[in-house]
Design brief:
Layout lengths: L5 H16 L6 H13 L6 H24 L1
């Protein structure tokens, strides 16, 4: 069985929040952390997961932009 790191746990925890409540409930620090964690995860072995990753990264970047523009 693969070793689960603290980063993996944090990424999964944040992704569960996003899947249940959306990106709007996350604070800026959480958004930046999620962006870094998702970008560092390699999904090259799964084409569908890689496509979802690219879409999610774009959504997170848009939300960060909105957040920073607002404040």
């Amino acid at each position: 069985m693969a070793h689960v790191t603290d980063d993996d746990r944090k990424r999964v925890e944040l992704l569960e929040v996003v899947s249940k409540k959306g990106l709007k409930v996350l604070e800026l620090d959480d958004l930046k952390a999620l962006l870094a964690l998702v970008e560092n995860k390699d999904y090259a072995h799964n084409k569908k997961a890689q496509k979802s990753k690219v879409k999610l990264v774009a959504q997170i970047n848009a939300r960060i932009y909105d957040f920073e523009r607002k404040f």
